Amino acid sequence: MVYSNHMPKRKKKATRTALVPLFLIAIGLILLSLWGLHRFLYNRSLRLSDRLLASYSRESIQSAVPIYITVADSISLRVVEAGKVEGAWTVSPTAANHVRGSALPGQAGNTIIFGHNLNTVFGYLVDARVGDPVDIRTYDGKLHRYKISEIQIVDPSQTALLSPTTREVLTLYTCTGLLDSLRFVARAEPVK
To answer: Lower CB density within 10 Å: C or N end of the chain?
Structure first.
């Protein structure tokens, strides 16, 4: 009797071929999970900010609303008002966002401006350094000058820098870290 080795090789090849779809399904599930985690972490910071908005005044003077921001030589873009519409946060994909209800430039209080971590929005904010200039142009044409005084990378649940203040400050923030799990916060003081 003569035995051939061909039979076991065919079984091995068939087994490997059967594993390819399972491998692709596993990769797909991993990618889907990463996407879901990213969406959860991004939305988590916006939900936590709801409590802070209740502590701000609801009055705003249309003429003092920020419309343009420049940070050092790396960021130069328009600013839009952001708030909640039907329970969901509005976030511009192409502009910086001024939190409706937070202070306005030139007034006592915390002016909060945030944006997506995209190179066309606030992606280069992470390159900012203490001492960098920040200019904000308001609807009435006034230019408000600030200088970055503090930079922090925080967990989304750390919202102390977003709280109202009694003195004029500007708070800029964007996402950073693995899957945007952290927040990059730059606090700026007015230049007199």
So the answer is: N
Distance from C-alpha of 93 to C-alpha of 121, rounded to nearest angstrom: 8
Query: Measured between alpha carbons, how far is 90 from 38 in angstroms, rounded to an integer?
Result: 18
Q: Quick one: CA torsion of 128, 121, 86, 64, rounded to 10 degrees?
A: 70
Fold of 52-190: Sortase; Chain: A; (2.40.260)
List Cβ neighbours of 93 (8 Å cut-off, separation of 6 or more).
116, 118, 121
Contact 187, 169 (CB under 8 A): yes
> pLDDT digits over 166-191, tens only?
999 999 999 898 888 899 999 999 99
Average pLDDT for the chain: 83
The residue assigned the tokens 């502009």 is: 95
**What predicted TM-score, i.e. pTM, was given to this entire model?**
0.72
Grouping H, G, I as helix, E, B as strand and the rest as coil, residue 145 is strand
Q: Which residue has the tokens 């976030």?
A: 91
Encoding tokens for residue 137?
A: 């142009």
